[in-house]
Write a structure and sequence with these properties.
Radius of gyration of chain A: 19 Å
Strand content of chain A: 25-35%
Largest interface: A-B, 29 and 23 residues
Structural class of chain B: mainly alpha
Largest sheet of chain B: 2 strands, antiparallel
Oligomer: heterodimer
Helix content of chain A: 25-40%
Helix content of chain B: over 70%
Radius of gyration of chain B: 21 Å
Strand content of chain B: under 5%
Strand order of the largest sheet of chain B: 1-2
Shape of chain A: globular
Order of helices and strands of chain B: HHHHHHEEHHHHHHHHH
Distance between the termini of chain B: 28 Å
Number of strands of chain A: 12
Order of helices and strands of chain A: EEEHEEHEHHHEHEHEEHHEE
Number of helices of chain A: 9
């Protein structure tokens, strides 16, 4: 199922947020979108997921513009994890994840065998089955993020779009969440597009990095090909030394002598 | 998941409460009276129960069910634990229409007959449809003012603010009109405005029943959407909820339930606010459990408050709306305090 952005532009009043973004995403890959604050990356993700309409251009999924997709069919094809989702008060983890089946259900019909199976699968894949019967509010930040991931997975989507899934997590939980995403992409063939703040996470986990600055694409390619000291300087105004990390992925270490 | 027996406790408790309420009032009643009244041809004490108290208890239960369900739906959709069906201006709109109708009745009546205007020109049975029209118009105005054209749906924050503003304006206008009524009419107006089940018969109830059926059916159909709306709206939308349909439809459903309840009993305050909180406190964690428990608690609250109003200053009566506000407000304050104490206790751990 192909996901493409066709000449997307978006303006907020007189301020241009996105200018003519033209991209096609490969479902077999993990794509990371990088860019400084205000570069338009979150707006782009929200347009890509159909949460927001573009000013010009259109997103197509499976060859059809998103505007022609109904909300439920779209939710069965594409799941979104917003930056800071809010959970209902007093909800239990399993009940929360069960809401992922909304688009697969009809009113007045209780959860089917298939629904329960999908919920169990989602809990298992995210390693959250251990606290399925606990109240969501009682969980730690890392556990919560994996439960949100389980909610998205219960939708049984072909695409998973995430807005900064590792923010607010400690380093261990950041990599835990990214590993889960990697296994979903490789094992379950779920296409993943995520906005990330951390260049090194993008470099280590993504197959493709798209760098945005001022609402335009400034770099697009595999981490090894595009992560350079110049790009980081251009994006974030920071001097770094690029060294070779795991599997020869480029890793940036800030050059403290150059920071004044 | 609550055991099946838990579900039976709500309707069973309600029936018991309603039965007990049949005994209470300005004139006492005994077992044989209540028993005879349920038979074919009641007389004496039994007739009071059959003709006055039974329909009153039924009206109380229906009104309470409407307010309880409407309040619970609103608190979910508007994501505001303080949302109450009265924020639509339903109470203000209904009051305005009723008081206007009273003024009009006096205006068309010959001056010499002004004392009998209430019975001759504006029978009590006419008040519900008049109140309903007023409530629906006010609701439409609030929804129109709260419509966010950019998002193409209702903005919850704007809805709350517009409801408060319209309520204040209507309240002032109602007060001005009441003062302009002649003395004999003022009393009738105030009795209605304070929310009373006085002299409500089954004939006042039938027109409300289609609204009950429609409201309950809509709630059942919207239950999955309502449950998903408890998340933030972005998450709800990405789960597949059509916000532009589900939000206005739920609000309209709650408004219709509240408006038809106000039409029967006048503005009965605090039930729609209190019942969902009591349901959350006593009931289960799932939305379905919350909504139906809230409806049952609302019904129980109004029946109990009306019975209390009948005996507390007998042989005179205290209107049910005054009882619910007098008791509801402090109970609500106590619930809030308790909740925040618990919240602080968790944070402190």
């Amino acid at each position: 199922m192909q996901l493409s952005a066709n000449e997307i532009s978006f303006a907020h009043g007189p301020r241009r947020i996105l200018s003519c973004i033209d991209l096609s995403f490969d479902p077999a890959e993990i794509t990371a979108i990088l860019g400084p604050n205000g570069s338009g990356k979150s707006t782009f993700l929200s347009i890509l997921s159909g949460q927001q309409r573009p000013g010009q251009g259109e997103i197509t999924l499976d060859g059809r513009p998103l505007s022609q997709w109904g909300r439920k069919p779209l939710a069965r094809a594409l799941a979104v994890l917003p930056q800071q989702p809010q959970a209902p008060e007093d909800i239990l983890v399993r009940d929360l994840v069960a809401h992922g089946r909304f688009a697969h259900r009809r009113p007045l019909v209780p959860l089917s065998e298939a629904d329960h199976h999908a919920i169990d699968e989602a809990l298992r894949q995210t390693g959250t089955e251990g606290f399925a019967s606990r109240p969501f509010q009682a969980l730690s930040g890392g556990e919560r993020q994996r439960v949100w991931l389980a909610l998205a997975l219960a939708q049984a989507p072909r695409w998973l779009l995430l807005d900064e899934p590792t923010s607010f997590l400690d380093m261990g939980h950041q990599y835990q969440v990214l590993s889960v995403l990697k296994s979903l992409n490789r094992g379950r063939a779920i296409g993943i597009v995520m906005v990330l703040h951390d260049v090194n996470q993008a470099s280590l986990f993504a197959d493709r990095i798209i760098a945005l600055s001022g609402g335009r694409i400034v770099a697009d390619g595999p981490p090894g090909g595009i992560i350079t000291a110049d790009l980081i300087d251009r994006l974030y105004g920071l001097r770094v030394n690029v060294v070779s990390g795991a599997a020869s992925a480029p890793v940036c270490v800030p050059d403290l002598d150059a920071v004044d | 998941m609550k055991p099946a027996i838990w579900w039976l406790t709500w309707p069973a408790g309600l029936v018991l409460l309603g039965f007990a309420a049949l005994f209470l009032g300005a004139t006492g009643a005994t077992w044989p009276d209540v028993w005879t009244s349920l038979g074919a041809d009641p007389e004496g004490q039994a007739a009071i129960i059959a003709r006055y108290r039974l329909p009153r208890v039924a009206a109380g239960a229906l009104v309470g069910l409407h307010f309880g369900l409407a309040g619970a739906i609103l608190q979910v959709v508007l994501r505001n634990p303080l949302a109450d069906p009265t924020i639509f201006g339903v109470s203000g709109g209904a009051s305005m229409a009723v008081v206007l109708a009273m003024s009009a009745a006096i205006a068309v009546a010959p001056p010499s007959e002004s004392i009998n205007v209430a019975t001759n020109y504006l029978p009590l049975a006419w008040l519900p449809p008049i109140a309903l029209s007023g409530a629906l118009i006010a609701t439409a105005v609030v929804i129109a003012l709260a419509w966010d054209h950019r998002l193409g749906t209702i903005s919850p924050t704007r809805m709350v603010l517009m409801g408060v503003v319209l309520g204040a304006i209507l309240n002032a206008a109602v007060m001005a009109l009441v003062l302009s009524l002649s003395e004999s009419r003022t009393e009738l107006a105030i009795l209605w405005l304070s929310g009373s089940l006085y002299a409500r018969g089954f004939e006042n109830l039938w027109p409300a029943l289609p609204w009950t059926v429609a409201g309950v059916a809509l709630t059942l159909a919207l239950m999955p959407s309502l449950s998903a709306l408890r998340f933030d709206s972005q998450t709800a939308q990405s789960l597949g909820v059509r916000l532009k349909l589900a939000v206005p439809l739920s609000i309209a459903g709650a408004a219709a339930l509240a408006a038809s309840a106000v039409a029967v009993a006048g503005p009965v305050g605090f039930v729609g606010l209190l019942a969902p909180h009591m349901a959350g406190w006593l009931g289960g964690v799932r939305l379905g459990e919350r909504l139906w428990a809230s409806a049952a608690i609302g019904a129980g609250l109004v029946v109990a408050a009306d019975a209390l109003g009948r005996i507390v200053i007998a042989p005179a009566e205290m209107p049910v709306g005054i009882v619910t506000s007098l008791i509801g407000a402090p109970v609500f304050a106590a619930l809030l305090t308790r909740k925040y104490r618990r919240l602080h206790a968790t944070v402190g751990e």
